[in-house]
Specification:
- The chain is globular and about 80 Å long.
- A hairpin with a 5-residue loop joins β3 and β4.
- The chain has two domains: 365 residues, no CATH class; 76 residues, no CATH class.
- By secondary structure, it is mostly helical.
- α8 runs antiparallel to α9 and α18 crosses α19.
- It has 20 helices and four strands.
């Protein structure tokens, strides 16, 4: 081995490890009290050991891995609750994703400094930073997606290993099946050729069938075909009764929402407490550099076989998210790595020395997002629903039932440790709700109505609808 290559490889390995460890510690050092709905629901299932809900049809792997992670820490003496452990797991996954992204950029032939700065920029981009602090499924799928891309851009990729990483990404979140066109493009244009691409696709299909079959047989135990169908549909079967429901954004608004979300992935100013001009300036700078990079790469595509995969990556995911909540940023985290690849080439198109522009953008994103997106949620009082759940724990007896809806349906059982009645299941059925309350009161169990404020309305046998006094 040449000495200069040895030192270059050693430097790259050191930088990757520094990004993984440093990124994880950085995310662990700014804990968030944002506590999204799905994360709290997963923490409840982890603590109950409820495998049916842990192996969710849209994201089979995260809850299972979260339970194993929580059990491992419990055996090592951890006595805390599951939610902080799941947040720590995502911090580790977020740091690991930065390391793999750095390795990808180096494999694409980018300079060490450019690759390092762009990886740091990815780490402080709004969507990536926020959701590396939260208990949420998406960082897991993104990490395995990056590992898939890293394998496929090698000079001689290994089709089965690429398929294994991709299958784990899909089990992390089913939406990552959309990476298949980009994966086939990369494999077919590598040294393994069309036979290797076929082996990758077949292996991916076999691994996914095996993964879902194992989850169904050993964890879900479906009682009937409708039960299996509802599990496979996942979030598309959340309506009462399990009917199929596509989260569709109709008409031209879906395209505008999708496009507007691109700058918000870098810096999200959509909150009255944030100075919008700086957020939009940083977000549109990132988006403009990505657009310039796309133009530059489109011209150089024959010399860069992987360029088509970047465009296919973004295009295939757009086919889904143009019609599935296009303005919801958490679903779009998987767009950030290819966007940052384009950002680097956009900066290169403006200057031979791209590092200062990349550093300025990354620093600006770090300062803005840290100050206006991350810091506000580092105190418990910033989350009104969390504070309300803690108040309910103090103001209601331990055996209380609380009527609630929305995020209260997971916050109150988890943080207040109270049983709930979800109003969602009684929409248009006021008499059924009154009967449910009356039956609980007849057993001597107290029932309260979560008013969404510091007060709760108590139900009494004389006033089962909750029109009586406040407690």
């Amino acid at each position: 081995m040449r000495l200069d290559k040895f030192f270059s490889d050693s430097r790259d390995h050191a930088a990757a490890w520094a990004l993984a460890l440093g990124g994880a510690l950085f995310y662990l050092g700014c804990p968030s009290y944002r506590f999204n709905f799905d994360g709290v629901a997963c923490a409840i299932a982890v603590e109950l050991g409820d495998w049916r809900h842990l192996a969710h049809g849209n994201h089979v792997l995260f809850g299972v891995l979260g339970r194993l992670f929580f059990d491992a820490w419990t055996r090592l003496g951890y006595h805390g609750r599951a939610l902080p452990a799941l947040c720590a797991l995502d911090a580790i996954l977020g740091g690991a994703g930065l390391a793999v992204f750095f390795q990808i950029l180096r494999s694409l032939g980018l300079a060490f400094a450019e690759s390092l700065i762009a990886s740091l920029g990815l780490g402080v981009s709004a969507a990536y930073w926020i959701w590396s602090l939260e208990a949420q499924v998406y960082p897991l799928g993104v990490l395995f997606l990056l590992l898939t891309f890293r394998e496929l851009v090698k000079e001689r990729p290994r089709p089965f290993r690429a398929a294994l990483w991709h299958a784990l990404a899909v089990l992390g979140h089913a939406g990552h099946v959309l990476f298949l066109p980009a994966g086939l493009w990369l494999a077919s244009r590598s040294s393994v050729g069309k036979r290797g691409a076929g082996a990758y696709a077949l292996s991916l299909g076999a691994l996914l069938v095996a993964g879902y079959a194992a989850a169904a047989l050993f964890l879900i135990h479906p009682r009937s075909w409708p039960d299996l169908r509802i599990w496979l549909l996942g979030s598309a079967a959340l309506k009462v009764g399990g009917e199929f429901h596509w989260h569709f954004a109709p008409g031209a608004s879906s395209l505008s929402d999708w496009l507007l979300a691109v700058p918000r992935l870098f810096a999200d100013p959509l909150d009255p407490s944030r100075p919008p001009e700086w957020g939009w300036a940083l977000g549109f700078l990132g988006a403009a550099l990505a657009a310039l990079g796309a133009w530059r790469l489109a011209r150089d595509a024959p010399a860069r076989p992987w360029a088509g995969a970047v465009f296919l990556w973004l295009g295939a995911y757009a086919c889904l998210y143009l019609s599935w909540e296009p303005s919801t940023l958490v679903y779009r985290i998987s767009d950030l790595p290819p966007l940052w690849v384009l950002v680097v080439f956009g900066a290169r198109a403006l200057s031979r020395r791209a590092q200062p522009l990349l550093a300025a953008l990354s620093l600006g994103l770090g300062l803005y997002n840290g100050r206006y997106l991350i810091a506000p949620f580092e105190t418990p009082s910033a989350n009104a629903s969390y504070a309300q759940a803690l108040r309910l724990a103090k103001r209601t007896p331990p055996d209380a039932w609380i009527i609630t809806s929305g995020i209260g349906s997971v916050y109150i059982p988890y943080f207040a440790r109270r049983k709930t009645i979800n109003r969602r299941y009684y929409e248009g059925r006021a008499d059924a709700l009154a009967e449910r309350i009356a039956s609980l009161l007849a057993k001597g169990e107290p029932v309260y109505w979560d008013s969404g404020t510091a007060a709760v309305v108590r139900h009494t046998p004389e006033n089962p609808r909750g029109s009586g006094r406040k407690n």
